[in-house]
Amino acid sequence: MWLIPYGSVFPKSALDVCLRGRLTPRGWAAVLAVAICGLAGPWPALAQQSPLSLSGPGGETSIVADRMRQVGGDSDLLLATGNVEIIRGRSRLVADRVELNRATGEAVAQGKAVFFDGQDRLVGERIDFNLNTGTGVVYKGSTFVQPYYRLSADRMDRLGEGVYSVRQGIFTTCEGDDPAWSFRLGSAEADLGDLITGTDTSFLVKGLPVIPWVPFFAAPLGSERQSGFLFPEYGSNSRYGFLARVPYYWAINDSQDVVVALDVFSKRGIGADLDYRYILSRDTRGQLTGFGINEGLLDSRRSEGLPENRGWVKLSHAWQVTSGLSVK
Asked: 154, 180, 238, 300: most buried, per Cβ within 10 A?
């Protein structure tokens, strides 16, 4: 006897035939079509496998994935695919596919690979991470450091928690793939919670090297008041030609700071400026500013016998003696 709910996927004519206990060739064709559709239709996705816990020199490690397959013995290669997530302490590795050598702790992640180093998030084409030592490499990686710093590099080697050795990197505060300005770093070391320092650098505007070589580079990455390069300034006019200013901020202590800057003028020469501020007490403060330039590119000064070096200095000091008496 056939028990089929009326109004199902069977055609009404075929259903009537089934209920009468016999099938015509047309009825058998309908049943066969439904059976084929059922076999070829969508199957429910496989649920994530139970988490796998591993113990090693680096501590307890948890691995979750849609599929996990052991290749060789229990201490050989573990292949995890589909929504892979590996958690070790404050570090978390997420990818589409991860190959883990359980004997050495070496994990190779590919496909939407993301590494969470505490509060920092790094994205790369491929990420190698050693579960035993906590070291690793992010290839073609990039990261965004609060509040607004962006760092990308061909290779970023993890030396410790939040600390990376950078090779062929780009540093900027601009958004997008074509930043208005950036620093190209030959090599650098970045503590994502504190400071980045680099050597063999150049300053770029829209990808063009305005200052082809800078011997040393430093910039703060933390949210607190720290020393480092400020946002560069650039432009052009008929009197100075193309001009660029690269300022560096030095937080001496809580009551003193100074900004020094390199100034480049394509029609005049290279100069520097200084802005030093201090607070001696609640009622006493001051500021020292100055500017100097070598105008070796200005032909009129040489032809008129004027010195190529010139500049100025200004000191301002204020002391509030009483509510009605001040000295400036």
From this structure: 180
Nearest to 204 by CA among 239, 169, 238, 228: 169
Q: Say whether the peptide bond before residue 215 is cis (omega within 30 degrees of 0).
A: no
Pairing assessment for the beta strands 309-322 and 284-294 based on DSSP bridges: antiparallel
Q: What average pLDDT does the segment 165-187 reach?
A: 91
Q: Which tens digits make up the pLDDT trace of 97-156?
A: 999 998 899 999 999 999 999 888 999 999 999 999 999 999 999 998 776 789 999 999
**3-state SS string for 181-194:** EEEEEEEEEEECCC
pLDDT average, residue stretch 260-286:
94
DSSP state string for 258-287: EEEEEEEETTTEEEEEEEEEEEEETTEEEE
When the pLDDT of each residue in the chain is averaged and rounded to a whole number, the result is 83
Q: Could you please report the per-residue DSSP string of 197-223?
A: EEEEEEEEETTEEEEEEEEEEEEE-SS
**pTM of structure:** 0.59
Residue position matching structure tokens 């202590």: 253
